[in-house]
Specification:
Largest sheet: 2 strands, antiparallel
CATH topology of the largest domain: ABC transporter involved in vitamin B12 uptake, BtuC
Strand order of the largest sheet: 1-2
Shape: globular
CATH architecture of the largest domain: Orthogonal Bundle
Structural class: mainly alpha
Amino acid sequence: MTATITAPADAARVRDRADVQRQIKLVVVAVVAVALLVYFWLSTSDPHVLFGARQAAGGWFANAGPSKQPTDVDITLIQVVCVVVAAVTLVLAAVNRVPKGWLGGVVYVLLGAAFFVGFYLWNFVDQAGDPGKWITVVEPFSQGIQYATPMVLGALAGCLCERAGVINIAIEGQLLLGAFLSAAAATLAAHVHGMPAQLGSMLGMVGGILGGVAISALLALFAIRYQVNQVVVGVVLTAFATGLTAFFYGQLRGNDSANSWLNNPVLLTNAGIPGLDKIPFVGKILFDQTVIVYVMYVAIAAVWFALFQTRWGLRVRAVGEHPTAADTVGIKVNRMRWAAVLLGGVVAGLGGAALTVGDTGPFQQDMSAGKGFIALAAVIMGRWHPIWATCAALFFGMMVSLQIQFNQVHPAASYIFQAMPYVAVIVAVAGFIGRVRPPAADGEPYVKQ
């Protein structure tokens, strides 16, 4: 006689602990978002703001009229919609009806977008005085992408290196040396007779690549060949690049002749992609940028494809996870690591070029300003995946763009806004990312037995 075991009727209701924690986090975040959005709405005395077009490349709120004058808009309805979206998300989270997978991602994006719009517009309301002198609301995304470009390229370099098992703390140094050599190469190219200015600036990107590869070669030499502690090597190389560029910049500063030959590059200009730049909302944001931004788009897709869709990428990830096993099947571990680190130098060098020919023009001392370390944080936030690391770096760039715009409206709170990107990262890591696992052999030198 066979006994039949019947599962309890409520067995299907038993929930995984991680799922419970996910629900609690989302409920807390939604409650905070609803409370703040309601405060933004109720604390607004004059909901009228001026929407205008960004001067450089059009914009989200570009006026369709020929005068391009800012438009006076009452944002009360927008505030109400933001509150409703956040409240619906809160209800779904409270009853545990937020779906998993990409649909859940859509819910998170909508909640984040509602809070972003509500907070962003709240900073521009209640401007006293003559409306003709009010600070105009412009879309921050075009500028955010420009600011994020060096960090995105640095994060991609970090993903390439660390997926192969080499910690790259030297991204900051790669950006700095790449920026210096990019400015020098573009300036020298501009003196070639008959050289178009924009072509000379594009050649500056080659100089940036050389700078990034130079630092990468030193990193690979000491970390792979001589097996020096990779964190120490990265810090030393960053200090080396900082000192080297500061020395050469000191020699150029005040010397008009030397500056005209080595540190006076022509900026890359925005070049819209015909057809794509006419797409509503995203056309001007994504496809009316400089060449180096388009190179960044290609680099994101190329790094993802190389790491996850090719045999080469499989081997790179193998030497970063289990180099001994990779060696037993005939993979040259250290050779693969050299290739990944040097390729990372190419990408990071382009990030350095984005600082000069892609943004400010002449090289300035310490102009990377910690962007390499932010890129490293983006790698960790993105769990060593090029797509998610890109999203994290874009988030940083957007926060910098918002900081600059908010400082125009609230200059007294400039220090608070400067801290916003870093506070947001701490909240994201502590609240949603939690524990992350790097590649198993990351930072571990390999000696063939």
